[in-house]
Amino acid sequence: MKTYNKITPEIIKKFKEIAPKRVYFGKEVNEDYSHDEMSIYGKAIPEAVIEVLSTEEVSEIMKICNVNSIPVTPRGAGTGLAGGAVCIHGGIVISTVKMNKVLEWDLENFIVKVEPGVLLNDLAEAANKKHLLYPPDPGEKFATLGGNVSTNAGGMRAVKYGTTRDYVKAMTVVLPTGEIVKFGANVSKTSSGYSLLNLMIGSEGTLGIITELTLKLIPQPKEVVSLIIPYVDLDECISTVPKFKMNHLAPQALEFMEREIVLSSENYLGKSVFPKEVEGEKVGAYLLVTFDGNSEEELEDIIEKASEVVLEAGALDVLVADTPALKRDAWAARGSFLEAIIADTKLLDECDVVVPITKIPEYLKYINSLEGEVGLKIKSFGHAGDGNLHIYACSNELEKEEFIKRADDFMEKAYSRATKLGGQISGEHGIGHGKVDFLVESLGDTNMRLMKEIKNVFDPNMVLNPGKVCYKL
User: Fold this and answer.
1) Structural domain of residue 304, as residue ranges?
2) pTM of the model
3) Do 92 and 141 share a structural domain?
């Protein structure tokens, strides 16, 4: 068992010299720093929180912590769902929220340089004003870009445009030793050794602290339209999904949802958007699809072709959300699913497995069959276009200890089945410390050994975000 040292008054004094008036110690530390958005994985108050403003500050702090064996947890907005930003072994939190500047726009090369504390929402809005698009679109718009990169966040537009990884060109990183390095470059091709850039993306702050990012942008599509497509049941709904690509249709977003979660969300928002019955048929599931293009005529052709495809595949109707208000309301309902679940639930745990698209109906049928077996309410929705499913185990009656026991049983079964179907245990939320045991079962001993050895090379003293992803202490 690795042991760490406590922070002494002398070390606090050094921190305050590096970051004057931005060091919070003991009772000064806000309770919000003790957890992320999935507090079922426990709470841990850091001994100190330091709000950093520069790469050099991070470097000096890491040098002190590395020498003195003080654990460091990097943290952005704290919107994670796997305990990745929780300081389970004590020590300090390095908060990057004040490193929130857009440093440079290079419009000729379609790139932007940002600090890690810039919010996804702020970059999206700024790019929009320049008629550009930053394609990654995770559901939590007020997460930091550093956090997005650290978990390789995906989101709703991944089906067409890919995940965060596909838009990171370069980064500046402070290693656990305090060394400052640059990974990647603003080039389109590289065959120059191992890709340390890609190793850092998705590493959840366990290998280094990102202090600057160079991100790729694309021209903003001129026209966007969304379709609400109701079905009798989930099987027919999901069976349609492969037909989009088979018919040369490339949706920007392709989401599925069942009736119950839609009702919960609309009740939460106080607004009804999705049809509940079509010509006497009760709607059991929906696809919410967005297409983009360069002209109204192009989109009209896409809508016509998509409508033919889905109606032939069993859709009850096709509703075109072609006004800003209707489009906004439809996606607001989709975007509020998690908030609606939280509002109705005392205790919950979440997984974001990813399975082959054609296996979604089979997998969800199995997941729903577990409700009675584990004694928990199961709710789900997700990205039909890429097979990333968000599944929630919920209870309003159980005590926390019993809930955790049942939730662990459910997660073990859910992850095991996903792996057997050729999937993985996380599509975009990461492993943190809450899913480490399940990752071992999913990847096997050899893969875990390789990841641990990589961690040892970057962080031999095990001071940076210890106990996360691949290493339990």
Assistant:
1) 223-338
2) 0.95
3) no
Residues 111/198, Cβ–Cβ less than 8 Å: no
CB-based contact 60:18 (threshold 8 Å): yes
Domain boundary pick from 77, 97, 117: 97
Residues 330 and 352 placed together within one structural domain of the fold: no
- Give the E-state strand segments of 79-222 in sequence order: 92-95, 102-106, 111-114, 132-133, 168-174, 180-184, 209-216, 218-219
pLDDT given at position 376 = 97
CA 228 – CA 287 distance, rounded (Å): 6
Q: Which of 384, 151, 142 is nearest to 287 (CA)?
A: 384
- With respect to residue 473, please indicate whether it lies within any of the assigned structural domains: no
pLDDT in tens, 253-310: 999 999 999 999 999 999 999 999 999 999 999 999 999 999 999 999 999 999 999 9
Residue 460 falls inside a structural domain: no
Strands ordered across the beta sheet of 23-25: 23-25, 48-51, 92-95, 72-75
Q: What is residue 324's predicted lDDT score, i.e. its pLDDT?
A: 85
88 and 38 in a single domain? The answer is yes
Question: Residue 285 is inside which H or E element, if any?
Answer: strand 285-293
pLDDT at 361 over 90: no
Residue 295 burial class via C-beta count within 10 angstroms: exposed 0-12, middle 13-18, buried 19 and up: exposed
User: Quick check: is 49 in a domain?
Assistant: yes
Instruction: Identify the domain boundary among 63, 97, 131.
Output: 97
Name the H helices within 279-435: 296-312, 324-335, 337-344, 360-374, 400-420
Q: Per-residue b/e over 377-406, b at no fewer than 16 CB within 10 Å?
A: bbbbbbbbbbbbbbbbbbbeebeeeebbeb
The answer as to whether 454 is a domain residue is no
Burial profile 417-426: b = 16 or more Cβ within 10 angstroms, e = fewer: bbbebebbbb
Q: Residue 426's Cα: distance from chain center in Å?
A: 9
- Phi, psi angle pair for 281, to nearest 5°: -95, 130
SS3 446: helix
Q: What angle do CA 191, 196, 201 make, to 5 degrees?
A: 120
Q: Are residues 236 and 333 in the same domain?
A: yes
The number of domains in the chain is 4
